[in-house]
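Reviewers of the previous submission asked for a worked example of the structure-prediction workflow described in the proposal, so we include one complete record here. The input consisted solely of the amino acid sequence. No template or homolog information was supplied to the procedure at any stage.
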Amino acid sequence: MKTKTIAAIVGAFICLGAASQVVESSIDKEGLKEYLTENVKEQDEKESSINFEIGDKKEESFIERIGF
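From that input alone, the workflow returned the following structure tokens.
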């Protein structure tokens, strides 16, 4: 019973590793770099909080985002 469990765990790790390699090789690195350069705002070092704002998103509540 332990052997089957260990084999299943090892198989899952191998499958996850193979999937991550496929995803990594299929990413257009230049396109991603261009998108991030154009759309992600830099933050001043003086600000203490981290702001991950992307683009020109306006502040809106959850209710407004879902259309009410």
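The radius of gyration is 21 Å. We consider this example representative of the routine output the project will generate in years two and three.
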